[in-house]
């Protein structure tokens, strides 16, 4: 079942870390934009996956065992009768530690869409205004080459968007514009 309202309630029930809540909304916006670009009929499904992909963030000790991140989210979603197998597979595939490789379009989109939101946020935060409106696509593509900048950002995952025939600069622009649409929620 796809029910964004139910999903948002579940998100706020399980995720208490403020930056993870913002990240969840950012990934939702990027996933909706990717769905409109790649598979318009799946926008609600892709958006819900983006919103809920880190549902287990505050519930599992994934820092000591990263493979726990994803399976617990899927368990929570199954118990809530929210989503479907395609969505569960994408959520598992967004975390390389689960050993589930992203293969389908949906899985690859979430795998790439997850880290770019944090990367764009990091870029915005180095601007004096700390606003997304001031971030340029050129800055995103330039910073991709600077491995010391936002070193934790999975550049391989972000660059994998090209496997879906979306050039990285186009992906950067699509993601930036999606995040700008919810800049008030993100505080950027």
Automatic annotation (TrEMBL):
Name of one Pfam family that matches: HD
UniProt-listed SUPFAM superfamilies: HD-domain/PDEase-like
Domain HD/PDEase: 16-168
PANTHER family in alphabetical order: METAL DEPENDENT PHOSPHOHYDROLASE (PTHR38659:SF1), METAL-DEPENDENT PHOSPHOHYDROLASE (PTHR38659)
Listed name of the protein: HD domain-containing protein
Protein species of origin: Irregularibacter muris
Source organism phylogeny: Bacteria, Bacillati, Bacillota, Clostridia, Eubacteriales
């Amino acid at each position: 079942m796809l029910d964004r309202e139910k999903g948002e309630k579940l998100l706020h029930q399980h995720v208490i870390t403020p930056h993870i809540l913002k990240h969840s909304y950012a990934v939702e916006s990027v996933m909706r934009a990717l769905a409109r670009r790649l598979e318009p009929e799946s926008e609600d499904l892709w958006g819900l996956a983006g919103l809920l992909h880190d549902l287990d963030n505050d519930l599992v000790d994934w820092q000591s065992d990263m493979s726990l991140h994803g399976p617990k989210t899927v368990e929570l979603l199954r118990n809530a009768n929210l989503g479907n197998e395609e969505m569960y597979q994408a959520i598992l595939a967004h975390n390389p530690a689960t050993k589930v490789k992203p293969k389908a379009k949906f899985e690859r989109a979430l795998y790439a869409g997850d880290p770019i939101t944090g990367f764009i946020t990091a870029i915005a935060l180095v601007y004096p205004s700390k606003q997304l409106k001031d971030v340029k696509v050129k800055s995103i593509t330039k910073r991709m080459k600077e491995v010391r900048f936002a070193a934790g950002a999975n550049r391989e995952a972000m660059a994998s968007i090209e496997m879906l025939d979306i050039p990285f600069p186009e992906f950067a622009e699509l993601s930036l514009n999606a995040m700008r649409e919810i800049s008030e929620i993100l505080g950027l």
